[in-house]
Amino acid sequence: MWRYCFCLPLLLFDIGVAKASDSSASIFLPSQTGVDGSRSPVCSSPDPNLNYRPVIGILSHPGDGASGRLTNDTSSTYIAASYVKFAEAGGARVIPLIYNEPERLLFQKLELVNGVIFTGGWAKKYQYFDIVKKIFNVLFGFVLPGTFSVYNTIPIFFMLLHRKLWREMMLESIFQYMAFASDSSLCQLSLVRDILERFDAEDNASSLQFVENVNIQGTLFQRFPPELLKKLSTDCLVMQKHKYGITPANFRGNPALSSFFEIITTCVDENSKTYVSTVKAKRYPITGFQWHPEKNAFEWGSSQIPHSEDAIQVTQHAASYLVSEARKSKNRPESKKVLSNLIYNYKPTYCGYAGRGYDEVYLFTQPRARF
Ligand SMILES: *[C@@H]1O[C@H](CO)[C@@H](O)[C@H](O)[C@H]1NC(C)=O
């Protein structure tokens, strides 16, 4: 055992030495390398405009994430650990935003983050959506275009971020958003019946079809290698887990959605019906998914989740994109406050024995806020 412990640093050291001697084999003048001689020729200086210690807030979801196998406590909320690992894989740390803790606390935590993930799930509680709405108001209160990254596994909720909508926020649009964001659970709301449709995509991998003439610069896919982009549209590299969606025609026919978002990809369900699967806000770093970029690398509960090397790369590139957007955030909170709120203060619970659902969840069983 000890041998391995000592070996690893030595190996790294060896590689360092080998590299150093390689570079000393050919010596260039600074003018020949194009590198500013006043700085180290090896390490580029950090870009002062970027935040290299980004923190992603993830909003918890009602329940235990395991259909009562872990707890039936009605105040319990959870975050599937795969979303946390996803943010970590991109090079960020995570602060859980526990949706039912006192709002004062929740919004203090929101001031510590550089990006937000709204996870998938099957929330039914009004309180959850009320908090989502409030978080949106806060984000849009201090967010400048291009400085904040807001993600979701499901698209439509971003319609709230339409500037006009935001100003004249109507209950109706909030309900439309909520319904789509929670997939099946809220579709009964009559307000959304007309834009949502049933799709057969509950537990299967699919390809992603890029919309004709779409410009992927500035989107999630901008840094995907060309080979992988090609495979995305021919191979089943993304995981689907939802019952409801929106057709491209209905999406484009909805002025609130189509003026705010551009459709980047569509998917075809098990009955060859097409639904919108990735959207990007036209003027903001907001991406919506109707597929699960986090599952390929971090969830094992369904045999349908693709785990090929290509599929894992999809997770990794998506994570890099999220965090690269978060690095542009100007928010530089006090480091002590960040530390005491990080997800590292909590332990995930393994619930993969059931052979379905999430493998690990972070459970938060705090008492509800008292007002
Ligand atoms: C939650 O309730 C269900 C249904 O009554 C029960 O089967 C399950 O064991 C309970 N979970 C826990 C953790 O007690």
TrEMBL record:
The keyword Protease does not apply. It holds the Pfam family Peptidase_C26. GO terms for biological process: tetrahydrofolylpolyglutamate metabolic process. It catalyses: (6S)-5,6,7,8-tetrahydrofolyl-(gamma-L-Glu)(n) + (n-1) H2O = (6S)-5,6,7,8-tetrahydrofolate + (n-1) L-glutamate. Gene3D superfamilies: 3.40.50.880. One of its GO terms (cellular component) is extracellular region. GO terms for molecular function: gamma-glutamyl-peptidase activity. Keywords: Hydrolase, Membrane, Secreted, Signal, Transmembrane, Transmembrane helix. InterPro entries: Class_I_gatase-like, Pept_C26_g-glut_hydrolase, Peptidase_C26. Its EC number is 3.4.19.9. The active site is at H292 (proton donor). The keyword DNA-binding does not apply. Residues 1-20 form the signal peptide. It is found in: Secreted, Extracellular space. The chain crosses the membrane at residues 135-161. Belongs to the peptidase C26 family. This is folate gamma-glutamyl hydrolase.
